[in-house]
Amino acid sequence: MKSYIKIISLPLMLLVFMACMQASKKETAAMVENNNPPQEKLSLNDTSLKKVVKTDAEWKKELTSTQYHILREKGTEYPFKNPYYDNHKKGYYFCAGCKLPLFSSETKFESGTGWPSFYDVLDKKRVKEVVDKSLGMVRGEIVCARCEGHLGHLFDDGPKPTGLRYCMNSGAMLFLEK
Questions:
Q1: Is 167 a catalytic residue?
Q2: 3-class SS at 120?
């Protein structure tokens, strides 16, 4: 009789395990889709420009692999396959590394590039432009002024009133809906 119970309970336990794994996958997918871990506390009042300096190990522990690749290794994500390029919600975009508020949905526009694009920042002091001579061209790299994480690049083909296009990586930012 005990063997019979084991035989019946094994598939049941397997089903429970699979259901737990599926729930975990859905939660992970939701986190990736939102690009925000559920415990994130983002505040528009957190505007201190005091430098955030961490070791490589600390950044790796705190950031997702995508965030780390973009912010710390100056990587980029695929166009049209990132969470914010087609985000039409009203709200604010923060540095994923140090949570500094950077952009508003009010200045976001459709650039057709496949990355979220903005024609202005919340405050020019919150980002720095650095000369980027990679890929055989000269571009303006945009980094966070507080943690110096790579956010994207700056181009002069944006709409009025600034004529600028801050072409950012979704993986370098977190979004807070209004």
A1: yes
A2: coil
